[in-house]
Design brief:
The chain is of the alpha/beta class and 187 residues long. It contains nine helices and five strands. The structure holds adenosine-5'-diphosphate (ADP).
């Protein structure tokens, strides 16, 4: 199973992604996690990305594409994967399709869109800000990330709809309830 998780920041991609990892025994590839690890490790890539991330803007395509390509080439990603936070714009989605072909992997099977309204998103992210203190979980940055999502990432739903791969799942309710909706949508 090769899948893409689409959804606004705070829609639950990370949480549901972990459940999918446990269920299918395939890795989750999160560009946000990889970038935060690079920032924490103080690598050159991390230094390049930090200011952009702190502003809630998208990091340059070549940086995230490089991260994903390296990860998709690893042995554990050969029988499937869950992509969380990538692709985030149409250019990234097109590169992903070409990359899978070049790597000799089958194409994406499903894009699962976790639908959660903006008000609930802001509430969840402000709550997470208090608990985890992520640098980009501040109200003005949160609003910008939602705006960037709506402008650049949400249109990917149409991209995957055209390929017949998109499924929208209600992202509110209990975690297990949402997970059941996702597994049903994967069939
Ligand atoms: P969230 O979904 O909560 O906004 P992520 O953890 O997916 O957060 O990403 C955090 C930040 O990392 C983004 O706001 C962006 O700056 C950067 N980032 C992550 N993935 C990508 C991507 N595919 N393209 C560009 N920037 C990205």
């Amino acid at each position: 199973m090769r899948m893409v998780l689409l959804g606004a920041p705070g829609s639950g991609k990370g949480t549901q992604g972990e459940k999918l990892v446990a269920h299918f025994g395939i890795p989750k590839i999160s560009t946000g996690d990889a970038l935060r690890a690079a920032v924490a490790a103080g690598t050159e890539l991390g230094r390049k990305a930090k200011a952009t991330m702190d502003a809630g803007e998208l990091v340059a395509n070549d940086i995230v594409i490089g991260i994903v390509e390296e990860r998709l080439g690893q042995p554990d990603a050969q029988k499937g994967f869950v992509l969380d936070g990538f692709p985030r714009n149409t250019a990234q989605a097109q590169v992903l399709d070409a990359m899978l072909e070049r790597l000799g992997q089958p194409p994406i099977d499903r894009a699962i869109h976790l639908a959660v309204d903006d008000e609930e998103i802001i509430h969840r992210l402000l709550d997470r800000a208090q608990k985890e203190g992520r640098a980009d979980d501040k109200e003005d940055v949160i609003r910008n990330r939602i705006a960037v999502y709506n402008a650049e990432t949400h249109p990917l739903l149409a991209y995957y709809e055209q390929q017949g791969k998109a499924r929208t799942v209600q992202g509110t309710g209990g975690l297990d309830e949402i997970f059941s909706r996702i597994t049903a949508a994967l069939n």
